[in-house]
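If your schedule permits, I should be very grateful for your opinion on a structural question. I have a record of one protein: its chain in single-letter code and its fold written as discrete structure tokens. Would you kindly read the sequence against the tokens and tell me how you understand this chain to fold? Thank you for your consideration; the sequence and its tokens are set out here.


***
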Amino acid sequence: MKILYDHQIFTHQQYGGISRYFFELIKRFDGIDNSCGVGTLFTENAYYNEKNNPKLNRVLPNSNFKGKKRITNYLNEKKSIVQVRKGDFDVFHPTYYDDYFLRRIKKKPFVVTFYDMIHEKFTNQFESYRLNTKMFDIKRQLLEQSNKIIAISETTKNDIIEIFGVDKSKIEVIYLGNSLQNFTVAEERLINEDYILFVGNRRDYKNFDFFISGIADLLIENNLKLICAGGGDFTFEEQLFIKSLKLENHISFKRIINDDVLANYYSNALFFVFPSLYEGFGIPVLESFACNCPALLSNGGSLSEIGGDSVLYFDPTETESLRKATEKLIYSESLRKELKEKGKVRLNEFSWDKTFNDTLELYKSVM
């Protein structure tokens, strides 16, 4: 059996859960009879790169210029198209929602993973989603023409059925895993102050502005830091908003250099917070469990499905709910300790090995 993955997520994402997911699948083909191909020539991805595949390169690695990503996408798509047309595979698995391959794949089976229904559920709330009218039609085509659909949570599966009317028998739920299992946490803390940890993207449905405005006085009163790890530097607008809340000395951005650094951030935080309005899964929840870090989550989307009874929840639309939950974790060391222990147990239900094995069985079912 040979699986072909395409370039999409490795072209567009340097860090992030989706590229991590496909990297974890790809690397598990090494050393077994099954094999896979990846239609990618150039990538800046932190996980799947020249260290894992010597044939990969970067486009002018020491230069950033307008149009660089467009050129990378053009070259990588050409590579993927050649491999799709060649047909030297048993199952094709695109890594995102571009439908460029549909008229070229002929009768070869393909599987598509759906991560969430964010664009569809928040069309009226965020302008960028409202303007992207093409996405809905592309997703519908992929859902209709694919041989099987992977949903990364029951929440995502139910949303696909509700929004697109897909037959539930066509959708298989396969949970994701986390990659912070064999990390090395240095004895020295990278951040010496007491802090709450926020990880990743802060835009739109991530609900970051609501979160910091809701806990601003708690940060100030308790002399706490909020560390934002990854997700890019603060924008000018974010800096202005932080300043308006008088939080310049309480919120810091930190880059995620590697998994050991990320694990250090988790391991030494008072707790991790995920205030999203909606998540299709939420890998950072598992990362916090793996690093013995208590978690404070919104009850949006799949987060309660993933966290179970091992975390503390709040309503991501109600400031009072957020404040009460945050206060509990700030002031109760015993609660933090209890959640750490529960998180260790909960983590046993998720692993990349299980993700891979379940996905392999799904591939076999469409051949």
